[in-house]
Amino acid sequence: MELINNWPKYYKKDVVSHYCPGCGHGIVHRIVAELLEEMDLGKQAYLVCPAGCAVLAYNYFDFDVIESAHGRGTAIATGAKRAKPGLFVISYQGDGDLSAIGTAETIHSANRGENICVVFINNAVYGMTGGQMAPTSLIGQSTTTSPVGRNPEVDGYPLHITDVVANFPGVTYAERVSVSSPAAIKKTKKAIRNAFQTQVEGLGYSIVEVLSPCPTNWKMTPVQSCKWIDEEMVKEYKPGLLTDRREERRKEKS
Amino acid sequence: MDKVFTSGNHCIAEAAIRAGCRCYFGYPITPQNELGEYMAANMRKVGGVFLQSESETAAINMVIGAASTGTRVMTSSSSPGVSLKQEGLSFLAGFEFPAVIVNMMRGGPGLGNIAPAQGDYFQSTRGGGHGDYRTPVLAPASVQELADLTVKAFELADTYRTPILLLGDGMMGQMKEPVVFPKPITDLPEKPWALKGRGEGASRYQASLILDGLAMERHNWKLVRKYKEMAEKETLCELYMMDDADFAVVAYGTTARIAKGAIKRARKEGFKVGLVRPVTLFPFPDKILQKVAYQVKNFLVFEMSTGQMLEDVKLALGGNQVEVEFHGRPGGVIPTPIEFSRVIHRYYRRMLK
User: How far apart are CA B271 and CA B5, in angstroms?
Assistant: First the structure.
């Protein structure tokens, strides 16, 4: 019998994950590691991990990783990519990191069309700090800092940051996906592959937003969490391609 | 190499490029805009990177990104902007990444003004950002020294793997003087710790997160050992007219220049006054001051602040039976040599009584 699902080359063995059961990070980590192997990018990969649950991503990824201050991932990615254009640079960020404290860095790195890939994990909550309201929390969503549910009158509205940057001429590829089912995971892998390919070809900035479960802070089971993504989260954040200017860029380049 | 006539801000930029700096990230702020503008005009000519960032915070984090790849990198700003960079400075210290940060100080607090001041001494020498760290600080007092110390800053940053602050002020940045630039550095040693992609080797990561308390403590003490080594090997201090002096002015940067003018006047009156000029503010030349205290019992600290380096002078001379007086002009006021010579006169007369 042939083993068709091998351990990814760029994922460390014999490490115990610190992620909670049912968390989406592990799935996306694996996708990143698999794609770096499949696309032969692991040797020059440079990933920026965020302040947040994924801060320890270097415990799992078996390629070069740096950690960033909260929200500064795309600034560090910009510095590294500009200094050494041969690096394959990924900024891996959560919703608090990317769309709250790092909004300026997100907007401007996208607007400059930096040749980097952003993997954006949106779980509508601050995970590591224990379930506080995020800019992406849904209206009515109960969190530790919106205990009676997010009320737009005091808390504002869910922030669609990927939709915002998708409109920038500097953004080449933007897609929203989820990891709530095997089919959705396949789509996620395809989207991240497209994003990676964008950088490989030097076509500019790409971002993939992944709707990702956080059962611990949502106070749900993993199964309920996936259901909540499919039934509630997608109403606010509709999965799908947001922008794809790759052909346009290829023409500009040639 | 011929002498060229150039301003302080341009001089730093040119010296940095010659020192092998290949990335500059910055945000406009007066009175150091000419530095970034010079980089914009000249960095790309040598294949380097100039990028005007969206904020000071972004700039210092771009510095972190470039530094992590082993590239010589610089950012520059003035007081309010340097406050915004403190987060990144703390991370640079924690990561142990080399970088050069220029602060051309202006009056404060708050927006303050755009005139020269020395109010950021505490922020510069005490660490500035969060956590248990320090930043070594170089304080030039002439345009030539701006060039020399810019090169030195990059060398120290690489040798000790630490961010280095180059601390000037609005006057240092704006004034023009003749300079002989050092030859461009073409070969820089490899940095084995830099992240360049794992290639065929093992993967690596750089993190300032150390969750284990004991390991974090070890890291803190490691940084202290580094600073102690720098104190032994890298402390710089100029002694001016100190051979026969019985009264010493202590001043750095712009105020040291003004003090020299004032001391020349005082000497004409027959007062045996000299100057102790710390060139490194951290490590502070406390041992040199202590030696001076064998000879001199009366010190006058002169700053364009309300008295910040004064504390370091007092700490250095704490065990000695000496008088430490202070004259300060904070807020962007540049005192004249005449004014300061009157101050020397007053304290010198008092000493003689």
Answer: 35
Q: Give the pLDDT band of residue B319 (cuts 50, 70, 90).
A: confident
Q: Domain tally for chain B?
A: 2
**Residue B270 belongs to what domain range?**
237-352
User: Does the residue A1 lie in any domain?
Assistant: no
Facing A84 at nearest CB: one of B62, B196, B208:
B196
Chain B hits for A77, Cβ within 8 Å: 65
Using alpha carbons, list the distances in angstroms from residue A230 to A4, A179, A225, A226, B214.
Answer: 29, 10, 9, 6, 44
Q: What is the pLDDT of residues B229-272, one digit of tens each?
A: 999 999 999 999 999 999 999 999 999 999 999 999 999 999 99
Q: What pTM did the predictor assign? A: 0.97
Distance CA B253, CA B143 (A): 11
Both structure tokens of B16: 């940095």
| CB pair distance less than 8 Å for A105 and B206 | no
Cβ-defined contact of A43 to B58 (cutoff 8 Å): no
Q: Which distant-in-sequence residues (6+ apart) come within 8 Å of B203 by Cβ?
A: A10, A61, A62, A63, A64, A65
Contacts A65 to B, Cβ<8 Å: 195, 203-206
B222/B242 same-domain check? no
Say how many domains are in chain A. 1
Whether residues A66 and B206 touch (CB distance < 8 A) is answered with: yes
**Partners of A120 in beta bridges:** A93, A209
Last residue of a domain, one of B234, B262, B296: B234
Which positions in chain A touch B87 (Cβ < 8 Å)? Answer: 69
Task: Yes or no: say if B299 and B323 are a contact pair by the CB < 8 Å rule.
Answer: yes
Read off the pLDDT of residues A103-118 as tens digits, 9 standing for 90 and up.
999 999 999 999 999 9
* B18-74 residue pLDDT tens: 999 999 999 999 999 999 999 999 999 999 999 999 999 999 999 999 999 999 999
Task: For residue A45, give its domain range.
Answer: 25-253
Contact A31, A189 (CB under 8 A): yes
Assess if residue A105 is contained within a domain: yes
B contacts of A75 (beta carbons < 8 Å)? 53, 57-59, 61-62, 64-65
To the nearest whole Å, the CA of B170 is away from the closest chain A CA by 28
Cβ-based contacts of A105 with chain B (< 8 Å): 54, 57-58, 61
- Is the model's pLDDT at B1 over the cut of 70? no
Interchain proximity A87–B87, CB inside 8 Å: no
Residue A119 pLDDT: 98
| Mutation target vs A (from B39, B46, B52, B62; most A CBs, 10 A cutoff) | B62
Identify the residue whose tokens are 């710390």: B278
**Phi, psi torsion values for B179, nearest 5 degrees:** -135, 140
Q: How far is B66 from chain A (nearest CA, A)?
A: 5
Chain A residue numbers with beta carbons less than 8 Å from the beta carbon of B206 are 65-67
Query: CB-CB: which of B73, B87, B195 is closest to A46?
Result: B195
Quick count: other Cβ atoms within 10 Å of Cβ B70?
21
In this structure, is residue A54 part of a structural domain? yes
Residue A204's nearest CA partner among A83, A103, A78 is: A78
> Which ipTM was obtained for this model?
0.97
Residue A99 within any structural domain of the chain: yes
Q: Do B152 and B78 sit in the same domain of this protein? A: yes
